[in-house]
Amino acid sequence: MKTFVGASELAPKTYAWEIDAKGLSVRAGRRRAVDGIDLRLGTGVHGLLGPNGAGKTTLIRALATVLRPAGGSLHMLGHAVGDAGDQRAVRRAIGYLPQEFGYYRRFTVREFVEYMAWLKEVPKKEIPGAVQRAVERVGLADRADDRMKSLSGGMVRRVGIAQALVNDPRILLLDEPTVGLDPAQRLRFRELLKSLADETCVVVSTHLVEDVAAACTDVILFADGRLVFQGTPRELEAIGGPEDIGGSPLDRGYSALLASTDREAGTW
Amino acid sequence: MRWLRLYARSRQIFLSLPATVISGIAAAIPSWSGEQHSPDARSLVLALSAGIAVASTGLGGQDVRLDRTGSLSWAWIRAAHALGIGMAAVTVLLALQVTTETTTLLVIGRAACGLAGLAAIGAAVFGAAFAWAVPFAWCAVAYFVPPSGDRTVEIAAWMFQPADAAPSTWMSAALLVTGLVTYATAGPRPSVLAR
Amino acid sequence: MVRSFGILRTELRRSVAPSAGGVLVLLTLGFLYLISGPWEKGPTMWTAQWTSMALWTRFLLVFLWPLAVGFGALQGMRDHRSGMTELLATTSRPPLSRAVRTAGASALTLTAAFACPVLLGAIHVHTSDGHWHTGWLPLSLVGALSLVAGSVFGMGMGKVAPSALTPPLLAAAALMGTLTMQQAQDPMAGERIVPLRFALLSPANGPVRDVLTTFSASVHAGQVIWLAGLGTTGVALLVAARRRARLAAVSSALAAGVIALAVLPPTSSRTYVVDTVMAAPQCNGRVCVTRAHSSRLPDLVGPAYQALRIMRERLGDQAPLTMNESTVQQAPGTVRPRSRTTLFLYFDDWSVTHARGTDLVRSLIASGLAPTCLSPEDGSRRKIREIAAQSVAVAWATGELEPLPGTLWSRDEAMALAQPVWETLHSRPEQEQRSKIDAMRRAAFSCQGDPLGALTKGGQP
C-alpha cells in the first residue's frame, strides 16, 4: 500500500511483462548455470522450485543485475538489462534478498533499512515513512532500534525482507526468505506475499513446497539450468500421481517431474 | 600434526607468518643503514612490534562462535597461540642475525613477551580485527618518550628502556600474564567486522 | 516514531570514525601533556609560539598518520567482511555517493581530533605571549588534510585487499615511512637516510629546533599536491570495480607524487625559511630582539645597556655597540656567528633566559667578551674551560669573580679552574691584564686555541 504515487506509476505500462527473458544463459564460474531459458513473468507471486545446484540462485542473481547474462536477452520493466547503461533505472525498482544475507552488524535495524532505502534512491523525504512501513510489515517494529548483531537468525532474515520491500519495488526477488522463520512467522510471510501479488512481480526461490502452495500464483520448476515446468500450483498437483514420492499433492507433482529428468542413484 | 595444520589454516597462519617475516625484515632495514652496523635496540623493538601486530591477526578465527562450540580445551590452545606469536616475531629477528649483544637480546625478548601479552589483551577486549592496534599504538607513541631514569617513564615506555630497568621488566611480565590469562579464558571478542 | 535521518550521521555513529577520532585525541593530548620532552619545556615548546605549536602538533603525525591509515583500512574492509557486496551491487545509487559519506564521516572526526590539540595550543599561546599571525595556518591545515587523505587511502586499500592482515601491514609500513622520513626532515640532521625532498612527502616534520624557522611555501604546495593525489587514489579505489580502473587509480598516486617531488624544494635552505613575521626586529635603541621574543624586551633593556656601558668602559673602542637577537639558522657542527661590533643574543641559552638583574648583566658581558664556541648543552671538558674563561673575563670587567648564571651543573668545576687564573690575572699590571684579555678574545672569536690557556700564558697569539 503506497502513500505516494509518482508520475511513473500513473503512466501506462509500456511493457507486457515485468520480466521477459529469451534464451537467457548465465554463467556461474565456468558452468552455464542457466542454460537458454525463456521466461515471462508478470505481476503475481512466482515460486521458483528445484533441486540444489539447479541454477535457481544464479537466475535470481541475474535478475537482480548482480550477474551479467552470458547469452540471450533479458528485459526487466521494459528496459534491456545487460549493458551497463540503463541498470540504474531498473535497480531503483528492484528489491532483492540474497541467500547469504550480509549486513552491517553495528547498525540498528532502522539505520540499516534506511541505508538500503537511501541506496535505492528512495526520495529523501519519504525514507522515514517507508522504513517504518517496511519494518512494521515484517513485524519488527518493536525491535527497530536494536542493533543487528543482537537479533536472532529469523529476525535477521525478516530485516532482509524489510530492506527488499522498503522502496516499494515492482520486482521483488527473494532467495530463501523463510530460513529461520518459525511456522507462525511463515504464515504471516505468506500473507505478506499475497498482499503483494496485485502490484508486484515477486519471485520466491524456496525449498518449502507448502509455502509455494499457499502463497504463489505461479510455480516455476527449474532443474539443471532448464525450465521444466511453469504453471499454476493446481496444474503441478495434477501431474503427480499416487506412486510418486511426497507428502502432499504438490510434492508428488514435483517429484514426478523431476523423476523424468536424469538423476543418478545415490545423489540427493 | 594434521590437527595443527588445520588449526593453522583456520587462523590464516600460512598467510600471516610470511607477512610477519616480511614486515620484520622491512622494519629492520632502516636500522641497518645507520652508521653503526649493529642496530640499536629501539629500532629493533619497533620492528618487533610491527611483526607482532601483523601476527596478531590470527588470534581470532574465521567464526569465533563456531570455535567455541568445540569440545577442546581452548584455554591452553589460546595461551599457546599468544605465546607463539611472541616467539615467532623474536625468531624472525634472530634469524636475520640483527644483533649479537646480550643486552639487546634481553631487551628484544622482554619486549616480545609484553607485546604478545598486549596483543592478546587487544584480541580479548576489542576483537582480532582491532588487536593489532594496541601494541602498535603503544610502541609508536612510546618511541618518542625521551629516555630518563624516571619510574613513570620506565613503566610507560617499558619496551624501550635499557635491559636492567626493573620496573620495565615487571611491566612486561605483568602484561604477558594478564594477556595470556584474559585471552585464554575469555577468548577473542567476536568482531563486528566479520560475521 | 519517525525521526529525521542522515546517512552521514549514521556513519558517524556506526563506522570506525568515532573510535579513530577518539583514539587520536587521547594519544595527542596524552603525549603533549603527560610526556615530558623538548615539546613541553624550553624555548621551543609547543605552547610558546604559534609556529612552534603548529609544528609540534604536526610532529605527532608520525604516529597519528599510520593509525589513521590503519583505521581507514579497517573501514574499507567493512563491506567485504560483512558480506554486503552482493546486496550493494544491486542498488542504484552510484558507489561514489556511498564512498563520499563513509570517507566524509572519518574525515570529520579526524579533522576534529586534530583540531583539539591545535585549539588547546592556540589558547595557551594566546594567553601567554600571543603575537598573532597567520603564517602557521597552512601548517595545521596541511596536517589535517594529511590525516583525511591517509584515512581515505587506507579505505581504498582495505576495499581492494580485504584481508585481516591489511590494516596492520599498512599501518606498520606507514609508521616505518613516517619515522625514516621524519629523521630526514630534522633541520639539524647530519646525514639523511633519504633525500630531503623525498622525505618532505611525509606530513610529520622533525622536532622543532628553533622558534623562528618554518617551512617555505613550496613545501606546503608540494605536500598538498601529494596528499590530494593520495586521497584521490583512495576514492578511486573505493569506487572502481574493474582491475583496469584500480590500476589507473594507483597510477594517479604515482603521478601526484612525481609532480609533488618537482614542486618540493631540493635543498635545506629552500625548505626551512626564517619566519619573516616572527623574525622582524623590535628595537629599543641599540637593543633589538625578534618579534617572537618581544615580551622579553622590557626586562632585557636595563641590564643590556648596563652591560654595554661596562664593556665600553673596560674595552674602549673594541666594545660591542649594539645587541641583536640572532635569526641565523644553525647548521649542525658549525659555530655560531660572532662579531666584535654586535653582541648576538640567543634565547636558547639558559644563562640569558633565566637570569635577571645583575646576573643578566654578567652573562651579557660574558657573551660580549668571549662568545661561546660550543652549544649550550655541551658538557665536555672544553666547555667547562670555556665557562671558566668567561667567568674570569666578567670578573675583569666588573671587579669580582662570581659564578655565571645558568651553569649550575658545572659551576664548581668551572669555579675551581677560574679562581687561580683570576687571582694571577688580578695581580698583574693593567696593561698586561689587557693584553691577556685580548689574547683570550682572539682565541674565543676565532674558536681556535684555548681561551683559558690564553689567559694564563697571555700575550702570545
DSSP strand content of chain B: under 5%
Distance between the termini of chain C: 95 Å
> Largest beta sheet of chain C: what is the strand line-up?
3-4-5-6
Task: Tell me the radius of gyration of chain B.
Answer: 17 Å
Would you count the extended β strands of chain C for me?
6
List the helices and strands of chain B in order: HHHHHHHHH
Shape of chain C: elongated
Question: Helical residue percent of chain C?
Answer: 55-70%
| Helix percentage range of chain B | 55-70%
The overall pLDDT of chain C, averaged over residues, is 85
Low-confidence stretches of chain B: none
What summary fits the major beta sheet of chain C?
4 strands, mixed
Number of domains of chain B: 1
Termini of chain B, distance in Å? Answer: 29 Å
User: Which term fits the overall shape of chain B?
Assistant: globular
**What is the number of strand segments of chain B?**
0
Query: What is the H/E order of chain C?
Result: HHHHHHHHHHEHHHEEEHEEHHHHHH
What is the topology?
The complex is a heterotrimer of chains A (268), B (195) and C (461).
Chain A: H1 7-10, E1 19-28, E2 31-41, E3 44-49, H2 56-63, E4 71-76, E5 79-81, H3 87-92, E6 94-97, H4 109-119, H5 127-137, H6 153-165, E7 171-175, H7 183-196, E8 201-205, H8 209-215, E9 218-223, E10 226-231, H9 233-239, H10 249-259
Parallel strand pairs in A: 3-8, 3-9, 6-7, 7-8
Antiparallel strand pairs in A: 1-2, 1-4, 4-5, 9-10
Helix pairs in contact in A: 4-5, 4-6, 5-6, 9-10
Chain B: H1 2-10, H2 13-32, H3 41-55, H4 64-68, H5 74-95, H6 102-126, H7 133-142, H8 151-156, H9 166-186
Chain C: H1 7-14, H2 17-34, H3 50-59, H4 61-76, H5 78-82, H6 85-89, H7 95-128, H8 137-160, H9 166-185, H10 196-199, E1 213-215, H11 217-239, H12 243-263, H13 268-271, E2 272-274, E3 281-284, E4 287-290, H14 297-315, E5 322-325, E6 342-345, H15 350-353, H16 357-369, H17 381-398, H18 411-427, H19 430-446, H20 451-457
Parallel strand pairs in C: 4-5, 5-6
Antiparallel strand pairs in C: 1-2, 3-4
Helix pairs in contact in C: 1-7, 2-4, 2-7, 3-7, 3-8, 4-8, 4-9, 7-8, 8-11, 11-12, 14-16, 16-17, 17-18, 17-19, 19-20
